[in-house]
Amino acid sequence: MFMKQRSYSVLGNVAIVNFSDDIKKNAKKEFAEEILEKNKAIKTVLEKSKKFSGRLRKQETKVLAGEKTKEVLYRENGCVFRFNVDETYFSPRLANERKEVCELVKPKDEVFVMCAGVAPFPIVIAKNVSVSKIYSNELNRKANIYAEKNILRNKLKDKIELVPGDIKKIAPRLVEEGKSYDLILMTRPNLQDTFLKEAFMISKPGTRIYYHGFCKLEDKGKLIEEIKVEAKKAGKKIKITNTKDIGEIAPYKIRLRVEFEVLGKKGFWKRLFGFKIF
What we know:
32% of the residues lie in helices and 34% in strands.
């Protein structure tokens, strides 16, 4: 009965348990020992003590049973990742999303990934698509250290380049260098900042942008309108090409992938009037 009342997630060799406030220490320990006994692949059981917080989306956990480590070895989509669950953000729930996005990437694309973390999106894509180059941008220094090791671990050094630092500072520098990209993945966590201003700065006519937004079920249209407003502020014309609900993050609140393309003048007039200008 106790087991049915508790839920936990598994990241490779680590199980992370959520407990309600009324569960006593001895009961937590007992449940953790049960997990280790019934799942031989799990070496450590952690208790999640608070939700992800701050711009770096860190969480806090404590060891309940097993090996005293918070470092995970995780496999997904033919790739392997190592990271610390407290020091970096990683969502195993996005495994299918990473696979689906990978299928949307075109061969020879030059790809820029924002909020890339320990590089799961760049690595899954580079492992499965013959892209020109992938640029992995992340603010968290420790995540970048793990990203570099994960790139080497998956033998993708020639395909992925780290662009560490704050995208708000990096985007203007890339503009000065004349950089723009075929595909921009905005795999952002649930933050107030949209980073759309920076994405539009490094876009060009024909750039496809895949944006992760968060909204209530009934507010999908509102989220799309917010993207259009940001595009207008940036002096860009866009075309929404697709939307995809990629999971519930809270009751009645979802993560939504919005796909859109930056249009040039020809594309803009064609969108308005339906004819081609030569």
